[in-house]
Design goal:
CATH architecture: 6 Propeller
Radius of gyration: 21 Å
Structural class: mainly beta
Strand order of the largest sheet: 1-31-4-5-6
Helix content: under 10%
Number of strands: 31
CATH class: Mainly Beta
Shape: globular
Number of domains: 1
Length: 364
């Protein structure tokens, strides 16, 4: 999500839609009336991501955009030379929406059927999806423009003089919140300036900067709960031994809280809020490799122990259950994974590179 001479993978925001489970009355003539115990809840878990084809298509090995439903995968793109990736997933009623790219074309799939939002003449990308009141919102960009799309109609958020992206999107009533960054050019002296990503959100298209432009800062996710707007991201801290590690932060109504120490690098990729509890998923350096982690109200829960790298990219919460998606290296190959309450499940077999980038859970 940032650019500070490094590359970030795309990502999206989780949507959790718990359904009520009714308690049924159960009567037996022989035993008299009584309450039948409610069955345990069943959760349907949807994950968006990609897997490499492992086959050189002439100039490179393409990826295939995928969605997993309860661990069962479905290809959304053909695996052709242009490649594909699924970056975000949402569920509305009985409909499953997945956002991503088919080659250079911004696309979403509704129940597997593709809907193209760009024509591919410029490279487009999408990192987030939100479905609200029957309207479908996607956040990302095209060319040198930061954009979101509402029902396929683009809303341009920048003038193209500086790059950037939307990394997260949320809708509350008539308000649309898009979060991400734009590159800032901040003067620091005569003929001298700093070029760095500025953490930025747009409310109904109006930009608000949450960092000063003197160092890298990026917003990666947003959610609205109880009238409060929560944003997650990361910001470079003060230099330690010649480097400035990233700090995971949460902004509640624009007020930042730092979740990680200044001595370790960490990145936030997703956020979920349930009641008064705030969950943030990402990864943190343990001194040698980055480790998939989520934070509940600032307390870290590490999802792996190394020695290989692991990342958490999406989070969803149903009742007392916390679902996280991401990936873990198995030697030299990334394996797409989910974790339920810290217990891992592999979505791929490790034969080809794969990553899970976003997760949605429906309780029924």
């Amino acid at each position: 999500m940032t650019r500070r001479s490094i590359t970030f993978e795309p990502e999206g925001r989780p949507i959790v839609r718990p359904w009520a489970v009714a308690l049924g009355l159960f009567g037996l003539l022989a035993c008299g009336g009584g309450h039948h115990a409610a069955p345990p809840p069943v959760d349907d878990v949807y994950v968006a991501g990609y897997e490499s084809t492992g086959v050189d298509a002439g100039g490179g090995i393409p990826n295939v955009a995928k969605v997993w439903t309860n661990g069962v995968s479905r290809d959304l793109t053909s695996g052709g030379p242009a490649g594909g990736v699924a970056t975000a997933v949402a569920v509305s009623g009985s409909d499953l929406y997945v956002a991503g790219q088919d080659g250079a074309v911004v696309t979403f799939w509704k129940n597997g059927a593709p809907v193209a939002l760009t024509d591919g003449t410029q490279h487009g990308w999408v990192n987030a999806i939100c479905v609200s009141g029957g309207d479908v919102y996607l956040g990302g960009g095209e060319g040198n423009l930061v954009k979101y799309w509402k029902n396929g109609v683009p809303v341009t958020l920048t003038d193209g003089t500086a790059g950037g992206t939307v990394w997260g999107i949320a809708v509350a009533g008539k308000d649309v919140y898009a979060v991400g960054f734009v590159y800032g050019y901040t003067p620091i002296g005569p003929n001298s300036y700093i070029i760095a990503p500025v953490a930025t959100y747009w409310k109904n298209g109006t930009p608000v900067a949450l960092s000063d432009g003197l160092h890298t800062a990026v917003l990666t996710a947003v959610t609205v709960s109880g009238g409060d707007v929560y944003m997650a991201g990361f910001e470079a801290g003060e230099e330690v031994d010649g480097s400035a590690p990233y700090l995971v932060k949460v902004w509640k109504n624009g007020i930042p809280v730092t979740l990680t120490p200044t001595t370790k690098g960490a990145v936030a990729k997703a956020i979920a809020v349930v009641g008064s509890d705030v969950y943030v998923a990402g990864y943190e350096n343990n001194g040698s490799v980055v480790i998939a982690t989520y934070w509940k109200n600032g307390t870290p829960m590490r999802l792996a122990n190394g020695p290989w790298e692991s990342i958490a990219t999406g989070i969803a919460v149903c009742g007392a259950d916390v679902y996280v998606c991401g990936a873990e290296l198995n030697g030299a190959v990334w394996v797409a994974k989910t974790w339920k309450n810290g217990t891992p499940t592999a979505l791929t077999n490790g034969a080809q590179h794969a990553q899970a980038l976003d997760i949605a859970v429906v309780r029924r």
